[in-house]
Structure formats: structure tokens, C-alpha cells
Design goal:
This protein is α+β, with helices and mostly antiparallel strands. The chain is built from 14 helices and 19 strands.
């Protein structure tokens, strides 16, 4: 919609609002106010009324979006919604005066307004702000959606998340919980002496995982760079440098498909602790899950998608080779073992399970087991059929690490785009000496899915990637 677009060419619902906008401007009313001071949120106004001994509180000044308006004649009612809830507005002609009351009746659902007046209940007991004056803050030129059902509307919810947040308070509550979960994880790690750091998003070598990266180009440096696929290698460089407990919570990017479990950009927590191993990381992972459930207000014995789940530590521990033997009756190793596990076992693990001791072939950054060098000291936390965390006792031997990178390079040369790239600078860092270290990565989005009972990753990411509209 542009200034030159004729109003008569607009759909009726949009045309009506544009005409109202023009009338407001002609009457000298500013339809887009630059500043407004409110004294109370809707929740604050309701709390003020509850605390009042005589049933009247205020006056207050509230502000938010008009969701519904009803009533004509000398009295009108409306529901005002802000970031904390809703409250009813009562507008009377004998209080506002003829002109202001007429303008109140011309407000549309979706308009942002501020309103002042005392707070008391109506005859039906509804807590309300009895409006003595109001201000139009921002005229809405599009009608709010009325219904949210069916595949088409689901797609609209994701593409126009702002409408989803306006129309569905439950959606907003999921993202409030997401913020609280991240804050709780930060508080837990900070309390254990971890230092939050930031590492490069643009990298020359996109290491730390098996994934196809996104490519970009730096014009000034005249070189190709990649968006990071993990946080690991830079954080371990910091441990080499003497920062013995570090973590980062940040976006990582993997050039892969879309599904209920995958989004090409997602949020990871990675933390590294010197003088720790993967057993220590298991205990830390359990604490993180408990902290996340607490931040979400969920009991540890709860449900996910209608099925009971027990989040109480200690979580079950099981060797990958044993789980696959139970499922297939065969003793497998190497890549064949990992493939059988992903296909036959992982989707059926419901309660939290630490799957331990992965084949060395698929774990180029983890320390080999002393008692069986075919496997490494690695675990993944699996729950509700999907991975939530991945951790190692880190490989500190630079010579072994070089051999692993060389083996991965051979796989890459043979056509495996997700094989780990060769990182000479990381090897150089290891040659200065990495202390015994435990490392952990947690998928924040999947953890939030678990503690908010959401089935799809798109429901916990505010602006998920989507196919072309």
C-alpha cells in the first residue's frame, strides 16, 4: 500500500479504516503519537483494584491494543490488551462529552490507545477502567484476524508472528517461558563460575559438528566465509588460553531441511569446563533440565504431547552398542552401529536417557575410551525420541586430533559434505596444551519444546524459516 494507491481500489475493510484515518487527520487528530506515559499495566491496574478496601482505585492510565468494542448510545465497552493481559474499558458519553465519545465509538479493533480513569467493577462485577479521557496512539489500518484454524492459517501464524502474538495469548506465554528458561540456565552456569563469552559467527572453517554450512563472501577481505555450525572450537581455544569455565548461548546455522525437529538456524548453549569429563557434563545436563522445567513452572513428573514423562534425575544411562543389540540382536560397530541406532533406537527413547560411548568414526573431537578405543567418551541426552544435548570428554591429544581431521578430510574428498573440515589453527591451539576438559552442547529450542509441551520447533522460534510464500 502506497500514498498514491487510490483508496477506492482497496478491499472494503481496509478502505473503511483509511477513510477513518483521513477524517482524523482532517479533524486535527494525530493518528500516530510519538510518546505516551502510562502509569499502570493492565495487570497492575487489576492488582490496584484488588488491594483497594472500598472497591475503587486510581485513577490509572493504561495503554494497549483495543481487541473488541461493543455497545452504542451513551455507554460503550471495550477490551484493552497489553503485554500483561486485558482489562475492560467503560466509556460514557456524559463523562467524555459528545465529541470524544463519538471518536471512541469510531475506534476499530486493533487500534492502540491510552485511557485514563478510576478502576472499579461494573454491576456485573467486571473490573474496568472508567474512561475519563483517552488518546489514539496508533491507528490500525488492517483488521485483526478472527479465526486461527487450518493449515493456511498455521502458515500465516508463522509468517506474521506479530498477529499470532496479538491473537493468541498462549503463544506469547511460550516465548515468555523461553526467555525465563534461558535466564535460568545463565543463572545456573554463572553460579558455578562459568564466564559467558561471544565467539565469531563468521568463520573461515565451520567446525565443531557434522553439517553443511551456509556460505557468504566478505567483500573487503575478498574471501569466502561460513556461518558457524557450532560454537565448540573457539570455546576450546579459550580454555587453552586459561579461561577454565566458559559458555556461550547463541545462534548457529546449518544448511539443512525443515521439519518439526529442525530449523536451519537455532539456538545452542555450549559450555566447557577444564578438569572435568563427560560424567561431570551428565550431572550438569541434569541440572540444566531441572532448571528449565522450574523456569517453565512444570513439575518434573509431567507430560509431553499427552504422554507421561519423568524428568527427575538421575537419568537412565545406556551404551549405544547395548541398545542396538537389544533392537537388532546383532553386535554392530562404527558407522553401521550409529546408523542402526538413529533409525531403530533413538525414535523410541521417551524418558530422558544418556546414550553413551559413540563410535570414534562419527566423533572426531572426543577422547577415546581407555578400555576400548573403538569408542569415545561421548553422550547424547535423548528424550521424547530426539536429541537434546551432546557432550564429550574432549580430545586433548593434538596428534590424534590431526589424524582424525585427516580421516574426515578424506571423507569430505570422497563427497561427504558434512564431514568435519580440517582446522589447522585449532590444531595449533591444541599443541599449546588443552587441559582435561568436559564439553556440553544443549539445543535450547528443543529443550523449550520439551518444557512447554510444543510439538514443533517452529512453535518455540519467533521467526522460523519457511518455504517461499
Amino acid at each position: 500500500m502506497t500514498d498514491s494507491e487510490p483508496i477506492d481500489d482497496l478491499p472494503a475493510a481496509l478502505r473503511d479504516r483509511r477513510q477513518k484515518l483521513e477524517r482524523l487527520i482532517a479533524e486535527g487528530v494525530e493518528p500516530y503519537v510519538g510518546r505516551f506515559r502510562r502509569t499502570h499495566t493492565t495487570a497492575g491496574a487489576l492488582a490496584l483494584l484488588e488491594a483497594s478496601p472500598d472497591g475503587v482505585a486510581g485513577p490509572v492510565t493504561v495503554a494497549g491494543r483495543l481487541m473488541t468494542r461493543r455497545g452504542q448510545g451513551g455507554m460503550a465497552f471495550a477490551d484493552l490488551q497489553d503485554g500483561e493481559g486485558r482489562i475492560q474499558l467503560v466509556a460514557r458519553r456524559d463523562v467524555l462529552g459528545e465529541g470524544a465519545h463519538r471518536r471512541f465509538l469510531q475506534l476499530d479493533p486493533g487500534d492502540l490507545i491510552g485511557a485514563s480513569g478510576p478502576v472499579r467493577r461494573t454491576r456485573r462485577g467486571e473490573p474496568s477502567v472508567w474512561v475519563e479521557c483517552f488518546t489514539l496512539l496508533s491507528k490500525s489500518l488492517r483488521p485483526l484476524p478472527e479465526k486461527w484454524h487450518g493449515l493456511r492459517d498455521v502458515e500465516t501464524r508463522y509468517r506474521q508472528r506479530y498477529l499470532d502474538l496479538i491473537a493468541n495469548p498462549d503463544v506469547r506465554s511460550v516465548f515468555v517461558v523461553r526467555s525465563r528458561v534461558i535466564s535460568a540456565i545463565r543463572a545456573l552456569l554463572d553460579g558455578k563460575g562459568f564466564l559467558e563469552v561471544e565467539t565469531p559467527v563468521l568463520q573461515e572453517v565451520p567446525g565443531g559438528g557434522h553439517a553443511r554450512p551456509f556460505r557468504t563472501y566478505h567483500q573487503a577481505l575478498h574471501r569466502e566465509l561460513f556461518l558457524r555450525i557450532a560454537l565448540e572450537l573457539y570455546l576450546k581455544r579459550l580454555v587453552v588460553g586459561g579461561m577454565e569455565r566458559v559458555y556461550e548461548i547463541g545462534r548457529v546455522f546449518r544448511n539443512e531441511g525443515l521439519s518439526p525437529k529442525y530449523n536451519p538456524e537455532f539456538t545452542m548453549l555450549e559450555c566447557y569446563q577444564a578438569y572435568a569429563d563427560y560424567e561431570d557434563m551428565m550431572r550438569l545436563t541434569e541440572e540444566i533440565v531441572v532448571a528449565a522445567a522450574g523456569a517453565a513452572g512444570r513439575p518434573l513428573v509431567t507430560s509431553y504431547q499427552g504422554r507421561s514423562i519423568d524428568l527427575r534425575p538421575p537419568f537412565r544411562r545406556a551404551r549405544m552398542v547395548d541398545l542396538v543389540r537389544e533392537a537388532t540382536g546383532r553386535e554392530l560397530a562404527g558407522v553401521e552401529l550409529a546408523e542402526a541406532y538413529e533409525e531403530l533406537v533413538e525414535p523410541n527413547l521417551w524418558d530422558p536417557t544418556f546414550v553413551v560411548d559413540y563410535p570414534v568414526e562419527i566423533s572426531p573431537l572426543a577422547r577415546r575410551r581407555d578400555d576400548d578405543p573403538r569408542f569415545v567418551e561421548r553422550f547424547e541426552l535423548v528424550a521424547v525420541g530426539r536429541e537434546h544435548a551432546n557432550a564429550f570428554t574432549e580430545l586433548t591429544d593434538p596428534i590424534d586430533q590431526r589424524r582424525r581431521f585427516e580421516a574426515q578430510a578424506a571423507e569430505r574428498a570422497a563427497g561427504d559434505e558434512e564431514a568435519h573440515p580440517f582446522d589447522e589453527d585449532f590444531l595449533r591451539a591444541l599443541e599449546y596444551g588443552l587441559p582435561p576438559t568436559g564439553g556440553l552442547g544443549v539445543g535450547i529450542d528443543r529443550l523449550v519444546m520439551l518444557v512447554t509441551d510444543q510439538a514443533a520447533i517452529r512453535d518455540v522460534i519467533l521467526f522460523p524459516q519457511l518455504k517461499e510464500e
